[in-house]
Amino acid sequence: MNQSNYFGIMDSQAVIEILKVAHEIESSGFSKVTRILQDPFILGTMFHNADSREKQVCDLTGGRLGISTVDLSWRDVESKDTETLLAELTMNSSTVDLLLTAFSSSQTFGEGRNLTNKFATASNGPIVSLHDDIYNWQTALSHLLGFQDRLENLREKRIVVSWGFGSNFSNPAVAHGLIAASTLAGANVRVVAPPDFPTLNRVRKEAAQSSGIVEETSDFKEGFADADAVYVLNWFRLDDFNHPERNVNHVSKYTDWYLSEDLLPDSCVLSTDPSIQSGLTVSPELLRSDRCINASWQARRVQTLASSIHYALRTESSII
Question: What is the pTM of this model?
Fold first, then answer.
């Protein structure tokens, strides 16, 4: 791939265009994407430690686009060095029209991101990264799509990305992706997190360099007062990546980090992931309310992925 077409982090043009086309897909169907697909079109997937729902989203997207999806995932990753993994990606990229990747390290936090950054130059065609261990662009963009549909315009809106009490301790990659993508869309971001469960400082710094504003607070009760949209996740401690059992030693101090309707402004929109713990992280009443957009989570994932495929093919760029 031409190096000039490669970018290692999502940029504002990509975010704005992907959200625009995803909204068009939601209102008028997938024809805008299918028109640019050659016949036959083959979509390849290469996963390692992928989120459990990623295959379903890929299969649903392929079904909507009328194209074949083929699993080309790495095998025995732990026994292979970086050059071998990249060589396999180069080989597989020559047999498909576009690759979807997801690579998260189970050993060292950030190692998956470092490898993902090399995918575009190793590939013979465009790549869309669903997620790595630092950024989950696709899920983050799907939350932004839901916010945009309700708010109409994201520019200068206040989006709150909050940690919430729970026992699932998910990877913060969605939170990281949402912090970065929100600022690229022109929104202002507030990260609400306790001292023991911060987001990655590097992510916040990179996001602050874009057109939006990023601020932080550990005041859970006051963090939502001016929010236009809220995303909440029970993410794990980055310091305990290799020892997840240690999360329970810190979480008991934050049982009151529980999101309920009285904490949010009347017009505020809420989005979470399917793993959210009702009654533990978010109140059941809030999840059932009209302000919560969770029912469209999977549909938005499919629309966002289809739009990302459209963007990658049209610009001959990789989205990693």
Answer: 0.95
